[in-house]
Structure of Malate dehydrogenase (Oxaloacetate-decarboxylating):
Amino acid sequence: MPVSRYYDVKRDEKGERYLEPYVTGFLLLRLPLLNKGTAFTEEERRALGLEGLLPPHVNTLEEQKERVYRRYRLQTSPLEKHIYLRNLQDRNEVLFYALVVDHLEEMLPILYTPTVGEAVREFSHIYRYPRGFTASTKNIDHLEEALQNVPLEEVRLIVATDSSAILGIGDQGYGGMAISIGKLTLYTAAGGVGPDKTLPVELDVGTDREDLLKDPLYLGVRHRRLRGEEYFRFLDRFVEAVRRRYPKALIQWEDFAKETAFQVLERYRKVVPSFNDDIQGTGAVALAGVLSACRLKGERLSEQVVVVYGAGAGGIGVAWALLEGMKREGLSEEEAKARVLVLDSKGLLVEGRAMEDYKRPYAQRPERLQGWRFAGAYPNLLETIQNARATVLLGLSGQAGSFTEPVARAMLENTPSPVIFPLSNPTSATEALPDDLIYWTDGRALVAAGSPFPPVGFKGRVIPVGQGNNAFIFPGLGLGAVLSRAREVTDGMVLEAAYALYDYTREHFPHLLYPPVARLREVSPYVAARVMQRALEEGVAEGEVQGLSLEGLLEFVKSRFWEPRYLPYRPAPVI
Ligand SMILES: O=C([O-])CC(=O)C(=O)O
Ligand SMILES: [Mg+2]
């Protein structure tokens, strides 16, 4: 079966790859995976019916990049830049990725967090071309047929959201499609997954946002969200249809509300290779960063007292990963639990308090609070930090500004170098601005944030702000799972991704909490190789990588890495 209904990639007599298109002429210029624009050679123009349809001068990819980059720089706002780049992606994918790879650090905040948050909010107002697949209450009864309409035959990576909790900005209805697109852009730009192996998905089960339902321009289905059994029936059908059409695909669940995120993960993780980016990806990235911070302080993770502020998918995922990290250093489950304190909007999670089931494993025993002083029914953030003598504070609350000056100063009372990570996204939802945290703690806090922030100048020092974003984890985790043909994404593989990121940072950037995002194309293959190694050890890998060493696995990943280059085109033989 060819890669796509519209083309296949083959090898010539010398083993060089070439592309064989099944369409010719004008259509070639309109399919983003096929279009080379002004870079079609004269020979290709003659052979493929393009003569007269393009300007006479043939451009190189370098020249095309130069042209589009100049226009890019003239766009006046991040959202305009986002729209410009997305238009390019929908016109010519090789050129788009060639440009993005050259300017990864500059363009990531435009295509991904934080600007993608704005693109999600404005989705129906800035809509241009269709991209990805929509499963909605309108097509769920014939989803298998609908999936046949996707022209790609070798999809390996699906990012699917129901948009119920996008970043830290809540229910966004159909607009969540932009997040699925943005995450897959990273899989290709940073993880080397060919764009024709990826499929962004929006699971449009409705929205509870009145303003969206009333907006005449809103593009999603116009009813309230499916819930309960109906909701899971919808998801069951989706998973089943994916399994049939793309049996080798992995599903990354993205931005599901806490009410369903855990159930969705558990319901399908043994049915289809899948993971939840916000629970597991964010958990792993936080663990890696806190381990780096401990190394910089010359302390151990198991000595820390961690406060996790926010008990949604991200908060619980982070609590889980840190507990696992502490257990690895020899603590018992009970000992580790007493060192990871989780708060939701009502305060500290304590056994016996009313709370959702998924939070219960992270509730403190009432004895843990012996001798504590607090005013309300349960300790609030400041009281928890003070009483527990917290040394690490992680924000996953979506509550902008909740890490106030008194909070930062209270951390400093407990330890000379507090670790404070406001991890909520996008920038507008961050618990604190990194420069405030650095000023409030007299430059002593170790700070990383979920969204990108510029370095902070403080008393003659330039302090870089690490980006503790799951972008350092998911491309490598997904890639590793797919390349090893893992039946399942195990917890061991998720944790391995965290330690791989930690090890990479220690080796290449020993003074930093996270590598610079410009290094994502190096980080992701390394994370992938370690994930594959773990999958092999756990016996869940079914692919051709059996018996390979870590170096062998890294070579394997690199040999599969998709690079944005034009292939020569040869017309399909006429039979
Ligand atoms: O998308 C991001 O930047 C990280 C993430 O998964 C989230 O905040 O939900
Ligand atoms: Mg997310």
